[in-house]
Design brief:
heterodimer; A: 112 residues; mainly alpha; 3 helices; 0% strand; B: 489 residues; two-stranded antiparallel sheet; 20 helices; 2 strands
Chain lengths: 112, 489
């Protein structure tokens, strides 16, 4: 159970960061943490205690195996997050060029 | 044929970035051609369905193990809608982008967004849905920022943050569902779900409701929408508001809640309440706006509310109204955003106070905006009237008179706010002497959508309704049918 609690704590850290931080870069980092929590959760879902790696070898007894599918999903999800993060960093750079600050309380031309 | 629906737009996107590099016209023609091809393909698919479901197993992996692509009447109808709007957007794009001084990259991103939406609609696999959703969203973030002004970067960043958070929620929901059912194929999950703890369904649907509800921009998840939709270039606003929030949000909610979770009453009541809040909240926020595109963006929230109450009622008639209104909203809201874009090019402003007597200067724009305003406000004989009428009748039949009354009030407030648009914006007293000319293809796009706004009101005629809308509703309402068809039993 403990790994799940820690995973949830990581998730909460991410949510806190997104909600409470005022710096664009810190928000992007918090989103990264949020993504890691989701990925970690996926890996935990596939984990089995005292299990074998899921490759059939001649002469090895079949026991419980780790679920390989979530690991494949996590790889995909990491790549997606890389794309999103790259785009957001690019947006942050442009925002800095336009507004001269990373502080979101000063980036407020849209309202209403 | 089914995988080609994803492959053609995706291939075009990369082809444009490879060869379109120097010539914008090549990129425009390429994307127009491929959108036309997929539109024809989806119409052929829809006509050839006759109540059947087409299933394609990717890489010959059979259904519960591999990824399946599923086309039934509902998804085919959504595809037709998306490609129709995309085609008019591309027609509109050529002169509009010239006036913005922008280039071929737009078309590449546009096709990428199109392939993302197609993927979300035809996939039968939850994680595959997540991947296509992210493809579509990533393109949408970039397109919102495409104009290159400070406000656009700000709106895009806000959209990107909220979109990523909701995607994380969805991913966690998918992980929970996978750990409980050991499969990602939606039909197989639907099959194993009754044997699982009902609390689990509650938790997972809460996660999905937050995730996809944010993509659909229902209040209280709406904060990104007015900024993103009003800052983006006009044709992107019309794509985002017309189809993206529906393909990634409402469509997935309908698919998951009806075909996978079997429409539990608890979730439907929550959706109904969200719908009602969105109708009233959206329209009240809209009526105070003077920026034309921001006003339209708030109306998107309100109109999505109508679709949500149709889903929340959960009756076949309610769902018919929801699907019909979804279709109609894409057409008239797309048209209204084109109008706003045309006015912005002609006068250089979106502020209603600085417009006036446009009927002479921009006859096509102001006439089509009249059609669209009457449609969204629900005045017969335009399409918006019939879909709202169906929704209100469905609410009364389901024993929810309060819902019906609130829907009527929302409709009246919509009428009021569009009278404001017409009164100050297009038929105002302020005299404007000169306006920039707008391209003929922009006018063509507006006229096509205005004609469609009238033509789709024919869908309410019983003979046509049974051919077009009813199969879609049946595909959603048949709870076990989806499972059997996809798993091939």
């Amino acid at each position: 159970m403990n790994p799940y609690v820690l995973c949830f704590a990581l998730f909460l850290v991410g949510v806190y960061g997104v909600l409470a931080k005022r710096d664009l870069i810190k928000i992007i980092l918090a989103l990264g943490i949020l993504g890691y929590a989701a990925n970690l959760f996926l890996v935990l879902v596939g984990y089995r205690a005292d299990a074998h790696y899921p490759i059939l070898e001649p002469g090895v007894q079949l026991g419980p195996m780790v679920d390989p599918l979530p690991q494949a999903l996590v790889l995909t999800s990491i790549v997606i997050e890389l794309g999103t993060t790259a785009l957001m960093v690019a947006l942050a750079i442009r925002l800095f060029q336009k507004y001269g600050t990373f502080d979101i309380s000063n980036i407020r031309r849209l309202r209403g | 044929m089914i995988p080609l629906l994803i492959a053609i737009p995706l291939g075009t996107a990369f082809l444009i970035s490879l060869i379109g590099g120097k010539r914008d016209l090549v990129a425009a023609v390429l994307s127009l051609c491929s959108t036309a091809v997929v539109l024809i393909m989806s119409i052929v698919l829809f006509a050839g369905l006759h109540g059947h479901t087409l299933v394609y197993s990717v890489g010959k992996w059979p259904a519960p193990f591999g990824i399946v692509l599923v086309i039934d009447a509902f998804s085919a109808l959504m595809l037709i809608l998306i490609y129709t709007l995309a085609l008019t957007s591309l027609l509109y794009a050529v002169p509009y982008l010239e006036s913005l001084g922008r280039d071929w990259k737009f078309y590449a991103l546009f096709m990428l967004m199109l392939s993302g939406m197609t993927g979300v609609i035809i996939t039968g696999d939850l994680f595959n849905l997540y991947v296509f959703m992210e493809i579509g969203l990533l393109a949408a973030f970039a397109l919102v920022a495409f104009g290159g002004a400070a406000e656009e970067y700000e709106a895009a960043f806000k959209y990107a943050v909220m979109g990523s958070v909701s995607s994380s929620f969805i991913l966690i929901g998918i992980a929970v569902l996978y750990s409980a059912s050991s499969t990602l194929t939606m039909a197989k999950i639907a099959e194993t779900l009754p044997s699982l703890d009902p609390k689990l369904v509650g938790w997972v649907s809460a996660l999905f409701l937050a995730g996809f509800g944010l993509k659909a921009a229902a209040i209280p998840f709406h904060a990104w929408l007015p900024d993103a939709h009003s800052s983006a270039p006009a044709l992107i606003s019309s794509m985002l508001s017309g189809v993206l929030i529906k393909a990634l949000g409402v469509y997935v909610l309908i698919r998951l809640f009806f075909n996978v979770f079997g429409a539990p009453q608890m979730i439907l009541s929550v959706v109904l309440v969200l719908g009602l809040i969105s109708i009233i909240g959206g329209v009240l926020l809209a009526i105070a706006q003077w920026d034309m595109k921001r006003l339209l963006a708030y109306h998107s929230i309100s109109q999505i509310g109508y679709v949500l109450i149709g889903i929340g009622l959960g009756t076949p008639l309610g769902l018919l109204g929801a699907v019909y209104h979804l279709l109609n909203h894409a057409l008239f809201k797309g048209l209204l955003f084109y109008n706003a874009g045309a006015v912005e090019i002609a006068l250089g402003t979106r502020n209603l106070k600085r417009m006036g007597n446009l009927t002479k200067l921009l006859p096509t724009t102001s006439n089509t905006s009249m059609v669209a305003s009457l449609s969204i406000a629900g005045i017969p004989p335009f399409n918006g009237f019939f879909s709202k009428l169906i929704l209100i009748i469905a609410a009364v039949q389901a024993g929810q008179p309060i819902t019906a009354v609130l829907a009527v009030i929302g409709s009246l407030l919509t009428l009021a706010s569009f009278m404001k648009v017409q009164r100050y914006g297009f038929r105002g007293e302020r005299v404007i002497e000169k306006a920039e000319p707008i391209g003929w293809s922009m006018n063509a796009a507006m006229v096509i959508l205005a004609v469609l706004c009238l033509a789709t009101s024919l869908l309410v005629v019983p003979g046509i309704r049974e051919v077009v809308l009813s199969p879609a509703v049946q595909a959603v309402m048949a709870k076990t049918g989806y499972v059997h068809l996809v798993l091939g039993r």
